[in-house]
Amino acid sequence: MTGLFLSQLTLSHFRSHRRSLMDCDARPVALHGPNGAGKTNILEAISLFSPGRGLRRSSAQDMTRRPEALGWKVTGILHVRQQIHEVEIWSEGGAARQTRIDGKLAAQNALGRIARVLWLIPAMDRLWIEGAEGRRRFLDRMTLSFLPDHADHALRYEKAMRERNRLLKDMVREPSWYLALESAMAEAGAAINANRQNALRAIAEAQTQAETAFPTATLDLQSEMPQTAEGLRQALADNRMRDLAAGRTLIGPHRADLDGVYAAKGVPARDCSTGEQKALLVSLILANARALTADFGAPPLLLLDEVAAHLDAARRAALYDEITALGAQAWMTGTGVELFTDLGNRAQVLEVTESEGVSAVGTPE
């Protein structure tokens, strides 16, 4: 089995990078440099090689370099199993980003059919103690990694729900106005729920089949919605009066939550220590990567922002061992090169510096 990796990455007027060119091989990439140098900006650029809004969920306008505001472009040479693709992603004048694959314009969701990208960033450290929205987003990112069409179901559901919510806020009571919208929500909502359940089963299987230094998390989807499209359609109809009073839809996959438990201790993830919560997150990302390797035929690109600084030396070494055993090209950031010592020659090291608001990438001397 051959892998998935970027052999070249170019950032043009992207965030703090006026122009940065990185030539790589399939090994993990360790990016080190001081805070604010532009390391995370590189990971954000790579995250755009997957469907969705990227690891910061920023608009295309926010990604452009200031003060020039000329628009930006990210280009990558992507090796996928036995194929090579040139991917270009860009935005002009703050407009929505566009994608070209092998010289042809493509929908953003088409990226999910040629590549898989997973990430873990410091903002996700609060996953277990923040609101349900963050956990749904985390679950949907995992689901999307297995099923690229999951995004299409989510878009259809959200569009129909927005229109239904508008009717609710306007206190429209005529049932005929709701029928088509609720049917669309029911079909898409049932597909979203089924996709999420399939992803959780894949993660659970990947966790039980691997020996790892990281604790296993038992995951469960908490949802009061019916499982079938017909059941959800009927529930939406039955709940109209309650939804009218609330001015919004109160049942459906947008109300689900992800419950996590530290399996070995039987302790809810939200009650674990900060270190344990971080270890559980790393465990889930690794399980997701293992499951994808079996499903997609190649390990995904891993984006691990400041992950080394939040692990003790033993777990840091264990993480590096698991990444290299998986064969994944993991792009990792850290403030000091010493954080990556345990990788040795198993990784390529790039230094990221910043001067007068311009980031630069080079090989340490």
SSE ordering: EEEHEEEEEHHHEHHEEHEHEEE
Distance between the termini: 34 Å
Domain count: the total is: 2
Structural class call reads alpha/beta
CATH superfamily of the largest domain: P-loop containing nucleotide triphosphate hydrolases
User: Can you give the mean pLDDT?
Assistant: 93
- Total count of helical runs of at least 4 residues: 8
Name the poorly predicted regions: none
CATH architecture of the largest domain: 3-Layer(aba) Sandwich
Order of neighbouring strands in the sheet with most strands: 2-1-4-5-6-7
Instruction: Find the count of extended strands (DSSP E, 2+ residues).
Output: 15
Q: Describe the largest sheet.
A: 6 strands, antiparallel
Give the strand content.
15-25%
The global form is globular
Find the CATH topology of the largest domain. Rossmann fold
Fraction of residues in H or I helices:
25-40%
